[in-house]
Specification:
With 449 residues, this protein is mainly alpha-helical. It contains 14 helices and six strands. Helices cover 60% and strands 8% of the residues. The protein is flat.
C-alpha cells in the first residue's frame, strides 16, 4: 500500500509497530509493521509480566524472578513429598485410623500455626521491612526445615502429632515472613507506582510454576511412594536446589534504600577509602543475607531519654553538644550500646546522621582492639583520637570527637549518596517510636504534634 506516512506508533519498547498511511483520497490506512511472532510473545508478556516491562520495573527484576521461579518449583516438589507423608501419618490408608483422630491432629496443627503467626508478626513485624532480603532467605530455610519434619513425622507414631504441630508452627512463620518480604520486594521492583500489577503478575508466574510442579508431582508420586530412599534423595536434591536458588535470588536484588546493614558497609568503606562512596550494586553485593550485621556496639535508634541521662547535668551537656541537631546520642562502652534519642521534629536526615555517628563510634571501638594498619585511618587525626579515647576509656572525649567528625563528614557523605543513586527521601533504619522534646530549663506541658 502506498501513501504518505502521517503517524508512526509503537507499543512501549516492544516490537509492536504500526504506520498510518494517508492515501490520495484522504483515507487513513493502518499498516502493521510488527515482527513475525510478535503477537505470540506479546501475549505471554501481557499475561506474565507487568505492563511496560522492562521500564516499569527495577533492573534486577528479571534475574530475581528467574531464580524465584526455580525455587518455587523446587519447593512445590518437596511440599508434595511432605503432603504424602503427613496424610499417611494421620491414617489415610490405615484401617485402624479414625476420622476423629485425623481431624484433631489437623486442628491442632492449624491452631498452633495461627498462634505462631500472630506471635511472630508481633515480635518481628517491623524488622521485616528493614531486612527484607535476610528475612526472605530465613523464611525459605525455615520452610525446608518444616518440610523435613513433616517427612520425618510418620516414622514416630508416638510423637507424630507434636512433630506436625512444630512443622505447622514453622510454616506459619514462613507465611508471615515470606508474604511480608515479598511485599517489600514488590515495592522495590515497582517503578511506576504499579505495585498491584507487579504483585498480580508475580502471582501469575507462581501459579504457572506450581501447576508445572503439580504435574511433575503426579508423575513422581506413583514411583516414589513407599520408597524411602528415593523420597529422601529427591528431598535432598530439590532442597539444595531450593536453597541455592533462594540465595541467588536475594543476592540479585539491588535495593537503593538504606538499612542498617547497607549503611554500615557504606560508612566503613567511606572512612577507609578516604571519601569514596560505594555504588548501589557494590554495596548490595556485600550485604549479609544470612547473618545480621556484626558490630561491637549495638545501635538503638529511637531510644527513651532515661537510657542516656541520669542527672540534669547530663542533659545540659548533651544539649550543648547537639544544639543544632534533631537527636541526642550517647553510649555505654562497657555494655556495648549506643542510644539515639530522637526529637519530636526529627527528620530523615537526623536519623541518617545519628546512625552515621553511631557507625563512626562503633568503628573506633573495633579499631581499638586491633592495630590500625589502614593508612587513610592513620592519617585521620580525629579518628585516631577517638581510638585512643576508647583505649583510655575516655567516653567524654570519644563523644565530642565523634560529633565533630560526623559534622565534618556528613554534608559530603550525604551529597555523595544522592550522586551515586541512593534514596535519601526515606530510610529503613528500624527506628523505634520514642520521640522527645527536651529543655533543661523546663518545657510547657502541652500536647506534642
Amino acid at each position: 500500500m502506498t501513501g504518505i506516512i502521517v503517524c508512526k506508533e509503537t507499543y512501549g519498547t516492544h516490537s509492536l509497530k504500526k504506520d498510518y498511511l494517508k492515501s490520495i483520497d484522504g483515507a487513513i490506512h493502518v499498516v502493521d509493521r510488527s515482527e513475525k511472532l510478535t503477537s505470540i510473545s506479546q501475549f505471554f508478556r501481557s499475561v506474565f509480566l507487568p505492563q511496560g516491562y522492562p521500564e516499569s520495573v527495577s533492573d534486577d527484576y528479571l534475574q530475581y524472578q528467574l531464580w524465584d521461579t526455580i525455587q518455587a518449583f523446587a519447593s512445590s516438589i518437596t511440599g508434595t513429598l511432605a503432603t504424602e507423608a503427613v496424610l499417611k501419618g494421620v491414617g489415610i490408608g490405615d484401617e485402624m485410623a479414625t476420622p476423629l483422630a485425623a481431624t484433631i491432629t489437623w486442628i491442632l496443627k492449624d491452631g498452633t500455626g495461627m498462634l505462631g503467626r500472630i506471635l511472630f508478626a508481633w515480635c518481628q513485624g517491623t524488622s521485616l521491612d528493614c531486612d527484607a532480603k535476610r528475612w526472605r532467605l530465613f523464611a525459605d530455610i525455615l520452610n525446608d526445615c518444616a518440610i523435613c519434619l513433616e517427612i520425618l513425622a510418620p516414622l514416630s507414631k508416638s510423637y507424630f502429632r507434636l512433630i506436625v504441630c512444630i512443622a505447622g508452627l514453622g510454616k506459619s512463620i514462613v507465611g508471615v515472613a515470606g508474604g511480608a518480604t515479598r511485599a517489600a520486594l514488590t515495592q522495590h521492583q515497582a517503578r511506576r507506582n504499579n505495585m498491584a500489577d507487579v504483585s498480580a503478575k508475580d502471582g501469575s508466574q507462581e501459579t504457572l510454576v506450581n501447576l508445572a510442579a503439580l504435574i511433575c508431582g503426579l508423575l513422581l508420586m506413583p514411583v516414589v511412594s513407599g520408597n524411602h530412599g528415593l523420597v529422601w534423595s529427591l528431598f535432598i536434591f530439590f532442597t539444595a536446589l531450593h536453597l541455592f536458588a533462594n540465595y541467588s535470588a536475594v543476592t540479585a536484588v539491588r535495593m537503593e534504600t538504606l538499612n542498617q546493614a547497607r549503611l554500615h558497609i557504606l560508612v566503613q568503606h567511606y572512612l577507609t577509602s578516604g571519601g569514596e562512596m560505594l555504588a548501589v550494586n557494590r554495596a548490595n553485593s556485600q550485604e549479609p543475607v544470612i547473618w545480621k550485621t556484626r558490630r561491637k556496639m549495638k545501635i538503638h535508634l529511637g531510644a527513651t531519654l532515661h537510657k542516656i541521662i541520669k542527672r540534669s547535668e547530663d542533659l545540659v551537656t548533651l544539649q550543648d553538644l547537639y544544639r543544632y541537631s534533631g537527636y541526642l546520642l550517647n553510649f555505654k562502652l562497657k555494655s556495648g550500646d549506643i542510644f539515639i534519642v530522637l526529637k519530636q521534629s526529627s527528620s530523615v536526615v537526623d536519623h541518617l546522621k545519628s546512625c552515621i555517628q553511631a557507625e563512626i563510634i562503633n568503628m573506633a571501638v573495633e579499631c581499638s582492639s586491633k592495630k590500625v594498619q589502614d593508612q587513610v585511618l592513620l592519617n585521620n587525626s580525629q579518628f585516631m583520637t577517638m581510638v585512643k579515647a576508647v583505649n583510655a576509656e575516655n567516653s567524654s572525649l570519644l563523644l565530642q570527637e565523634s560529633v565533630q567528625l560526623t559534622s565534618k563528614l556528613f554534608p559530603q557523605f550525604f551529597s555523595h549518596l544522592q550522586q551515586t543513586g541512593w534514596v535519601t527521601s526515606h530510610v529503613l533504619l528500624g527506628a523505634d517510636e520514642w520521640r522527645s522534646e527536651w529543655d533543661e530549663m523546663g518545657i510547657e506541658d502541652k500536647k506534642m504534634d
